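User: Hey, quick favor. My workstation is busy. Could you predict this chain's structure for me?
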Amino acid sequence: MRKLKITEMNRLNVDEFKEARKLPLVVVLDNVRSLYNVGSVFRTCDAFRVEKLCLCGITAQPPHIEIHKTALGAEESVEWEYFKDTMDCVQKLKDEGYTVMSIEQCEGSTMLQDFEADFNQHYAVILGNEVKGVQQVVVDNSDGCLEIPQFGTKHSMNVSVTAGMIIWEMAKKYLSYNS
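Assistant: No problem, here it is.
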């Protein structure tokens, strides 16, 4: 088995990416501290052609060298917007008709594998701070909570790993829905 060369992968350039059909998903980062996590989420959003990334609160924005180190240029392809307050972002998304889901361990949360997405509508998923998670006020104003099942001793996962899992699962559901 031979690894493909970059030129054999037929990837989109930035202009083609911006014009291409997107996964109807907005990813929201609620006060994410690590610039490397932010960059990693940019890169994952690029990989799955996510509609938009919203950066909220203390979450850093491009241009920034630490974001670029992990984003590897995805901050140029992925549409993004900054909100000083995450609730302003949540309200805007709801006003635009998005179903807003916090990724959090909550009473009554839906396990990710059990979530039945209806892609006649658009979704936004909110990922929280590395220590505190999604703010309670944001959870309170979400349409629901999705939870990734965990079986070890730790109660949480890295935010960029969580983003990858959530985005991949939504992409799978979207591909199944449209096949």
